[in-house]
TrEMBL record:
Coiled coil: none
Cofactor: [4Fe-4S] cluster; FMN
Domain NADH-ubiquinone oxidoreductase 51kDa subunit iron-sulphur binding: 317-363
Protein name: NADH:ubiquinone oxidoreductase subunit F (NADH-binding)/ferredoxin
Organism (species): Catenuloplanes niger
SMART domains the record matches: NADH_4Fe-4S
Gene Ontology biological-process annotations: cellular respiration
Keywords noted in UniProt: 4Fe-4S, Flavoprotein, FMN, Iron, Iron-sulfur, Metal-binding
Family: Belongs to the complex I 51 kDa subunit family.
Length: 507
């Protein structure tokens, strides 16, 4: 799903967020009103009451109760005597996810309806909608805004299409004109968000869900789904599934039914919840239903609704290693667990993929354990969760790597990475001229993020792009090498690096 084209949309049960798609494709304002009907404003108390009755939780991954967010903003605005701001997070920085981009391109008025409801209820000063700068859905959203009047001035802000840029705090910072990275300290947007004002920040699907519920009412909304988690959810299914799609389904639907519809066959594991999610076994997937409660019971997480099965024709350790490297490169680089710890996790995971050794496996566990609970944001925790659950689910594959030369399967790159560049924005790969290296070890001292020394004192590092935020450290390591053995490879044939170009022939 890295093509930039929104995948097909499917539905199990009654269509709500996807209603009207078969007849209209994309719903302009006329089609939107014909399908969904008019929308009436709600007071703050009524909005809170509705969200609480339908047990609406955020659909961006964290699953925080929406009514508690609204209530916190109301109380903060009253206490500070400042008008709040409504922010819609439609950035969708996770590469496997397409549900919010689907809403932007095909049902933009549902997103705007939800934002309008919140603005009416809170008497908001402004509405801000954050979208990624990849261009997917922005023009559709602009067209929708041109067709209607919003209850408060509304603007679109673009953010870099990076993994961490969609984090709530990073989005607020970007809107405020700061760097698009999470703040170094925990800060509630309800207290101080856009321009320091109380800010209601939630995901695009969350706003769309409240727009549907406001029309249906709590009883009809809860007519589908489970008692604890009523309504529908949007899922993005990819990986080895024969049919990649965004699927709307009621909570409580068996996960195996979703996998069957998308043509997924049994394999070594399924990633649920996205790149900050968890791996689960195929066996456990047969027991699960689509709900946060059911996924948690089998050791998974629903997260932002990503379901990514792996088939038997790809190396699961190799697939996971690519994503750990990517996540390490997506770090903001502003705290030790990210700047130092995540490259170490990626390094050790690649060594495990190459050798399958018990020592390498323990090294991954140790490295991941060192970053958990210590970061300035949730990125180290999410990355370590991804890596550690991969070790559990792919235990048999690790044994095959340990007993032979890998599992014998190619890495088909079923887990998408933007522009197929593992590690994110990069300055190139580190390369070592073994004929020159004398094992001085100076490079590891100045560049411990990526370079380690093996048992004989020689440098080892992953065959992966060096993240751009480690550029100065990489160049310093190259400069301190007394044997001039270390260099950066920015592409091309490694065997030709350092060789003088032949003079052109005379004719």
């Amino acid at each position: 799903m890295s093509t930039g084209v929104v995948p097909p949309v499917g539905c199990i049960g009654p269509a709500r967020l996807t209603a009207g798609f078969e007849d209209f494709g994309r719903l302009d304002l006329y089609a939107h009103l014909e399908v969904h009907g008019d929308l009436r404003p709600l007071s703050a108390d009524d909005l809170i009451d509705l969200a609480e009755k339908i047990k609406l939780t955020g659909r961006g991954g964290a699953g925080f109760p929406f009514h508690r967010k609204v209530k916190a903003v109301v109380e903060s605005a009253d206490r500070q005597d400042r008008a709040p701001v409504v922010v819609v997070n439609a950035t969708e920085g996770e590469p496997p996810s397409w549900k919010d981009k689907m809403l932007l391109t095909r049902a933009p008025h549902l997103i705007l309806d939800g934002a309008a409801l919140a603005a009416w209820a809170l008497e908001a000063e402004e509405i801000v909608i954050g979208v990624a700068d990849d261009g997917v859905g922005q023009s559709s959203l602009e067209e929708a805004l041109a067709e209607r009047r919003m209850p408060a001035p509304t603007r679109i802000v673009t953010v870099p299409h990076r993994f961490i840029a969609g984090e709530g705090g990073a989005l607020v910072r970007g809107i405020n004109g700061e760097a698009h990275i999470p703040p170094g300290i925990k800060q509630r947007s309800s207290e101080s968000g856009v321009n320091g004002q109380p800010t209601l920040l939630s995901n695009a699907e969350t706003y769309s869900q409240i727009a549907v519920a406001a029309r249906l009412g709590p009883e009809e909304y809860a007519a589908v789904g489970t008692k604890k988690e009523p309504g529908t959810v949007l899922l993005t299914v990819g990986g080895s599934a024969a049919q990649h799609m965004v699927l709307e389904c009621p909570t409580g639907v068996p996960l195996r039914e979703v996998l069957d519809i998308c043509g997924a066959t049994e394999g070594p594991g399924i990633l649920v919840g996205g790149y900050h999610g968890k791996w689960i076994t195929w066996e456990n997937a047969q027991k699960a239903e689509i709900s946060r409660e059911s996924f948690a019971a089998i050791g998974g997480t629903l997260g932002a609704g990503m379901i990514i099965p792996l088939g038997n024709d790809t190396c699961p350790l190799g697939e996971a290693s690519r994503i750990v490297r990517y996540l390490a490169g997506e770090s903001a680089g502003q705290c030790g667990p990210c700047r130092l710890g995540l490259p170490d996790v990626a390094n050790q995971f690649q060594l495990l993929t190459a050798s399958g050794s018990a020592a390498a496996e323990q090294a991954v566990r140790n490295a991941a354990g060192m970053v958990r609970g210590r970061g300035a944001c949730s990125h180290p925790d999410g990355t370590s969760r991804f890596a550690l659950t991969a070790l559990e689910v792919f235990a048999e594959d690790i044994k095959r790597h340990r007993l032979g030369e890998g599992c014998g399967k190619p890495v088909k790159k079923l887990l998408p990475i933007p522009n197929e560049l593992p590690g994110g924005p990069s300055i190139g790969k580190l390369k070592l001229d073994w004929a020159r290296c004398d094992g001085h070890g100076l490079c590891a001292e100045v560049f411990p993020e990526l370079i380690k020394l093996d048992g004989n004192g020689y440098p080892t590092f992953p065959d992966a792009p060096v993240p751009i935020w480690l550029e100065s450290a990489a160049k310093k390591a190259i400069l301190v090498c007394p044997a001039l053995a270390l260099h950066l490879d920015k592409g091309g044939n490694d065997r030709d690096k350092g060789k003088p170009k032949p003079a052109p022939r005379r004719r």
